[in-house]
Design a protein that fits this description.
33% helix, Double Stranded RNA Binding Domain, 31% strand, 7-stranded mixed β-sheet, alpha/beta, 3 helices
Amino acid sequence: MKKLLLTGVALLLLSLSGCAYHMVGHGNGSGAIPADVKTLTVAVNGDSQKVLSLFRKRLASEAYTLSDAADVVDEKTHAVLRVNIAPLTFVPAAYDVNGMATQYRMIYGGSLSVQRSGQNIWQSGNISQRGDVYASGGPASNEASKERLLRDLRQQWVTDALGRLRSGF
């Protein structure tokens, strides 16, 4: 029985290494941004100035400086962090007995990528945050709840996105 178990474990380990299974990410602690990067440009799609502002505030580092693309002096030590924000999803999630929506689900999502010399060197995959708004007050109250939830989801998304960027996964 022990021999069969040991053989099974050995086969499992061999099959994982044989199919090129390995952990992804950067193990040197620098995350997805290579250690030799000295300048970094943050580019956000669309009109997402609030997201750009949050990234610029929280992405400060001693290893590199944040710069505009026009200010890049040395392409070899420069990288671009692309922040792609998906369209906001806001859909009814629950209804009352009369068929009126009483709860709406908001999903804020997007992805990150790091580029050097026009080539992608890292991608985060999809990152999303979701929350619910309950339609219990009048239109002004519902709109205020929606704006508050959007602000919270945006901040949570940036925190998660920066966590992925810093870990390299």
